[in-house]
Design goal:
The protein has about 200 residues and is mainly alpha-helical. It is built from 7 helices and no strands. Helix 3 runs parallel beside helix 6.
């Protein structure tokens, strides 16, 4: 069983890390396609509620990052899959997850539909769905999942707490509960995958 957060094992045990990284890169294309589809849908829904130029800018950055991550996948597949290089590719994937999570988490900070409760709920729903979907894609490596989920989902939860009326506080508490359940599911998946 891999040590710690799913990184390379120490000592003389079997190192599962290269296989973890291989699986993550094999799952990533589907996640990236879903990322783009959800981003386009979200921008379309928010198009008449928020300033359009920032929305287009955000979508452009998402598309640029996604293109870069597809390039990363291609280079990984063409590279030597030795144990040493797997560590590098794992770090690159975690870093790209972190950037993606920050971009999704920036929505409730910079592109929050303050005057429309339905659009706030929809935005939180999309972000929550992305985080839940990441369980199947990234939970094989705990750091990869955490790097994406925390910056993506914490800001919308904090935003609801800041608004502090009864409805938003209830939504914030529900977001916290969802976040706990998501992490429990992700770590349970990790343990199941590495129990052998």
């Amino acid at each position: 069983m891999p040590a710690g957060g799913g990184g390379p094992s120490g000592g003389g045990g079997v190192d599962f890390y290269p296989e973890q990284v291989r699986q993550l890169y094999s799952f990533l294309p589907v996640a990236l396609i879903a990322n783009v589809i959800n981003a386009v849908i979200l921008v379309a829904v928010l198009w008449w509620v928020l300033p359009q130029k920032p929305l287009v800018t955000w979508l452009f950055v998402i598309l640029t990052l996604t293109a870069g991550r597809f390039v990363l996948i291609g280079r990984y597949k063409a590279a030597d899959a030795s144990r040493k290089s797997s560590r590098i590719w794992g770090k690159l994937l975690v870093a790209s997850n972190l950037v993606s999570g920050v971009l999704w988490g920036s929505l409730p900070i910079f592109l929050f539909p303050a005057d429309s409760m339905p659009h706030q709920v929809f935005q939180a729903f999309v972000i929550g769905g992305m985080v839940a979907g990441a369980i199947g894609t990234f939970s094989n490596l705990r750091l990869a999942f955490t790097a994406y989920a925390v910056p993506a989902f914490v800001p919308v939860t904090v935003r609801f707490f800041i608004l502090s009326d009864r409805t938003h506080l209830a939504m914030a508490v529900m977001c916290c509960l969802f976040f706990v359940l998501v992490f429990m599911s992700a770590f349970r998946n990790y343990r199941l995958n590495h129990s052998v």
